[in-house]
Structures are given as structure tokens and as C-alpha cells.
Specification:
Shape: globular
Number of domains: 2
CATH topology of the largest domain: DHBP synthase
Bound molecules: threonylcarbamoyladenylate, magnesium ion
Order of helices and strands: EHEEHEHHEEHEHEEEHEEEEHEH
């Protein structure tokens, strides 16, 4: 963007929430914490604000956004809930679940936010700061992760600042987030379908549905030829460094992203070492994932070697993000 904005940074609290609601109402852009990752919010009904949001992120305009609302009543004005969607909303909202649902005919969310699709992604976040902002603002807020397009999602206000300072109006600093990976996205416009693994493990969703979730393949396309969840496109989350998965031996000069206390040969020649969770805890690993990737990438290392990480529970989302980070960029 050619216009450089002065980005204000406020610690979470009453004044910050009031300022955030004011900026949103005026069509501005506010980064705020959710329990999954920091989001970059704009008034979901204001196309001009949403256009600025795409610009600020450098995001391709075909990638649709998640509308964040404060309660189920607000969600039902936007989208049509079938029985499965209702069951999931009641079980997991507020929380790290996004539902993609058919739009209501008079849906207030701007077409630009849904990239012209006839479905809309909705979530009720659990973070108290996000909830306070939504309540005070009083309308739906679209909020993609608050990073430049192609970068990993921010889990602290400092990450947001390093990507978006000068491009947005306000950052509300609520400290590091709890979950650390984005919400799980489930489509309920047909058979319930997993569109993106995330902070809510698949098994918990399947327990509520009483059946297995269909799996959308990464190259699945909707009728309009749009990807079902463009966030699933292979190289979405990419550090500058090359990422090598399931490393059992370290090559000289590589940085190591470890998990647990298992041994790995060649560690003495590592250029840097960070551990996602020494005690092998997947929730701790998810919370550390993007911050550790950013920190190792920030050291300018050529390759980040990642030890293998179990695939169950939150491990599905962690492995998914690591696979994307590992897709070659050149
Ligand atoms: O945890 C999260 O979900 C965070 C926080 C801020 O809420 N948000 C987030 O937003 O990760 P974003 O924009 O980075 O990812 C949203 C994903 C994208 O992959 C997008 O393609 C998909 O949701 N999506 C949005 N609307 C959709 C729709 N109608 N159909 C299919 N996928 C959709
Ligand atoms: Mg994102």
C-alpha cells in the first residue's frame, strides 16, 4: 500500500476495546487476539474496509474470510444451520471451530468477504478480548489471521507488528494466544466435511456428530471452480527457510525444531535448536509452532529440520501446517 498508516498499539483493556470498536465502525483495520491466533478485523458489512484488509495482507482477493460473531443468534442471521451445524455450534462455540454454511438470502456479510461464494465461514471466538470487541462493535467482523499473506499466523502482538505495522490502524495486545494454530474448519453445506484441521481435534467433532467427517482433498473445487477452502492450497504457510520434515538426523548447519526429548544425531552441528514441547505435549507444541518457526526463520538459517510429531489430536493440525511450510517455494 502506498498510504502508510500510523499503527497504534494498545494493551488489552476497556480503552483498547472501545478504540477497536471505534476503528471498526469507521471502516478501519484492527488486529486483536483470538484463542487460536491473532486476527485482523474489519467490519464484515463494509466492502471498502474489506478491500483495505486484502490490501494490507497482500492477500489474493479470491481467498474468502471468516465472519466472527458474538453469539449464535447473530450467526443465524448470516447463515443457515442444519442439524449437524447446530449440534457443532452448541457443542464447541465459543471456541476454535469455524463452520462454512449456506448464506442467508439477506446475509449482511459483504460479497467481497465471501469471494462471491454462496457459503459463508462463521466462528464465535472464545478469547475474552475478541468477545468484548465483538460485543462493543455489535456486528460481524471478518478476521483472517493478522499476518502478511504467505507468512505464518501470528501468535503474539509482536508478530503482528513485524508484519503489519504501518498497514493497519490498531493492534490490541492481549499477550500470547492459548491454542496457537487456526480454527478447525468444517463445511456443513452438504455432508459435514473437514476443510481444514485446526485447534479443535477431529475426534471431538466426530464424537458429537456420531460419524466420521468427510475429508475435503486439497485440490477439491466447488461448482464455481473456487477451492473449497483456499487455505488448504499446498503452500499457504511458508517461512523463508526450507523446511525438512520427519528429520532423524541433522545435516551440518541446519536448525532443529525438536519435539520431546528424543535423541537426534548431528545436533552438535545445529545452527539453532528450539523445542516445540520437551514433555511431548501436543497442545504446548501447537501454541509454540508459529512462534518457533518465525524465530528460527528470523535467524536466517537455510533449512529448518523438524523432528516427527505424532499425528493424533492436535498433531493433525500441526503436521498439516508443517507440510505446508515444507512445500518448496522455488
Ligand atoms: O483461527 C482462525 O480461524 C483465525 C482467527 C483469526 O479466527 N482466522 C483464520 O482466517 O485463520 P484465515 O482467513 O487465515 O483462514 C480462513 C480460511 C481460509 O483458508 C479460507 O479459504 C477459508 O477459511 N474459508 C473462508 N470462507 C470459506 C468458504 N465460504 N468456503 C470455504 N472456505 C472458506
Ligand atoms: Mg491465514
Amino acid at each position: 500500500m502506498d498510504v502508510r498508516l500510523k499503527t497504534q498499539i494498545l494493551s488489552a483493556g476497556e480503552a483498547a476495546v472501545a478504540a477497536a470498536a471505534r476503528v471498526l465502525a469507521e471502516g478501519g483495520l484492527v488486529a486483536f487476539p483470538t484463542e487460536t491466533v491473532y486476527g485482523l478485523g474489519a467490519d464484515a458489512t463494509n466492502s471498502a474496509a474489506i478491500a483495505h484488509l486484502y490490501q494490507a495482507k497482500g492477500r489474493p482477493a479470491f481467498n474468502p474470510l471468516i465472519a466472527h460473531v458474538g453469539d449464535i443468534a447473530a450467526a443465524r442471521k448470516i447463515a443457515r444451520f442444519d442439524a449437524a451445524a447446530m449440534a457443532l455450534a452448541e457443542a464447541f462455540w465459543p471456541g476454535p471451530l469455524t463452520l462454512v454454511l449456506p448464506k442467508m438470502p439477506d446475509c449482511a456479510v459483504a460479497d467481497l468477504a465471501t469471494a462471491g461464494l454462496d457459503t459463508v465461514a462463521i466462528r464465535i471466538p472464545a478469547h475474552p478480548v475478541a468477545r468484548d470487541i465483538l460485543r462493543t462493535f455489535g456486528g460481524p467482523v471478518v478476521a483472517p489471521s493478522a499476518n502478511l499473506s504467505g507468512h505464518v499466523s501470528p501468535t503474539t502482538a509482536a508478530h503482528v507488528q513485524s508484519d503489519l505495522a504501518g498497514r493497519i490502524d490498531l493492534i490490541v495486545d492481549g499477550g500470547p494466544v492459548a491454542v496457537g494454530v487456526e480454527s478447525t474448519i468444517v463445511g456443513c453445506f452438504d455432508e459435514p466435511m473437514l476443510l481444514r484441521p485446526g485447534g479443535l481435534p477431529r475426534a471431538e467433532i466426530e464424537r458429537v456428530l456420531g460419524r466420521a467427517l468427510r475429508q475435503a482433498s486439497a485440490d477439491a473445487e466447488s461448482d464455481s471452480g473456487q477451492p473449497l477452502a483456499p487455505g488448504m492450497l499446498a503452500s499457504h504457510y511458508a517461512p523463508r527457510a526450507k523446511v525438512r520434515l520427519n528429520a532423524v538426523k541433522l545435516e551440518a548447519g541446519e536448525a532443529l525444531l525438536a519435539f520431546g526429548l528424543g535423541a537426534i544425531s548431528g545436533i552438535d552441528a545445529a545452527s539453532a535448536v528450539m523445542n516445540l514441547s520437551e514433555r511431548g505435549d501436543l497442545a504446548e507444541a501447537a501454541a509454540n509452532l508459529f512462534g518457533h518457526l518465525r524465530a528460527l526463520d528470523g535467524k536466517g538459517v537455510g533449512t529448518i529440520a523438524v523432528m516427527s510429531i505424532p499425528k493424533e489430536g492436535l498433531g493433525e493440525a500441526i503436521n498439516d501446517r508443517l507440510r505446508r511450510a515444507a512445500v518448496g517455494r522455488d
